[in-house]
Design a protein that fits this description.
Elements (H helix, E strand, L loop, with lengths): L1 H29 L8 H12 L2 H34 L1 H16 L2 H39 L3 H8 L5 H39 L5 H10 L3 H28 L1
Helix pairs in contact: 2-9, 3-4, 3-5, 3-7, 4-5, 5-7, 7-8, 7-9, 8-9
């Protein structure tokens, strides 16, 4: 196991080194730091950003928005997913909505919601809309994969439906719900940053990217992109550990 972990780490490092080499070569060919900054320029910009206290305030604001929207999406998605798996008529009712939300392009959803609700409230709505279908489907699949014999045995006891949902469907669907959360949290963060960028929300990672773009500070844009990647990796690792420990 230790050797496998070391090999995975070594391969990951080699992959990053290869990407940096390709990046360095491409920047050398372009020979224009305004269009494609060198890796060393981005490194300096990254250090400067990380040394500013404002950076962590920006990250916390964006993360708070993600947490709020994801909590709401989880509550609604899990509740409706349990009902959808429990009752096929409820699933038929919500299926067109869920399918539409999963197929409509993200950019279209962002623009429409921004027009309808403005820049402040829309950030939460956009993230919720993108995460809800994933959590709903994961919860519903968890219910549908429960052993039928367990359901039939409990139904013989003539328990109330609320009791069955709480003590049978919800616990046995939890692995699917956790998988849905793991799949959606990284997507939610990326969608939120995209919405912040388009809406030019103050005190946000998206706004920092926007300011880097309009000020032609592309090294800062690359540096913030690296920060976003690391945040998503850290979030997914934390969720994955919670998934394996429970």
């Amino acid at each position: 196991m230790i050797s496998i972990a070391k090999n995975k780490l070594l391969l990951g490092i080699l992959s990053v080194v290869l990407l940096i080499i390709i990046w360095q070569f491409a920047a050398f060919r372009v020979a224009n730091r305004f269009l494609l900054p060198y890796p060393i320029d981005v490194w300096h910009a990254l250090i400067n950003i990380l040394l500013k206290g404002e950076t962590y305030r920006i990250i916390l604001h964006s993360f708070a928005r993600l947490l709020t929207a994801m909590t709401l999406a989880t509550l609604v998605g899990v509740c409706l997913g349990l009902l959808g798996g429990f009752n096929r008529f409820i699933d038929y009712f919500f299926r067109p909505l869920v399918t539409s939300l999963r197929t409509v392009p993200v950019a279209s959803i962002i623009v429409v919601i921004l027009i309808l609700y403005g820049s402040r409230t829309s950030l939460y709505i956009i993230t919720f809309v993108m995460l809800f279908p994933i959590i709903y489907e994961a919860t519903k699949q968890g219910v549908l994969n429960i052993d039928r014999s367990l359901i039939e045995a409990l139904s013989l006891e003539e328990e109330r439906k609320a009791y069955v949902l709480r003590h049978l469907y919800f616990p046995l669907s939890m692995p699917f719900i956790k998988t849905g959360l793991l799949q959606s949290i990284g997507l939610g963060f990326k969608v939120l940053v995209m919405a912040e960028f388009i809406a030019q929300s103050p005190v946000s990672i998206g706004n920092a990217l926007y300011r880097g773009r309009i000020n032609l500070e592309y090294a800062n844009v690359f540096a913030w992109t690296i920060i976003i990647i690391f945040i998503v990796i850290i979030i997914e690792q934390c969720v994955n550990k919670l998934k394996t420990h429970q």
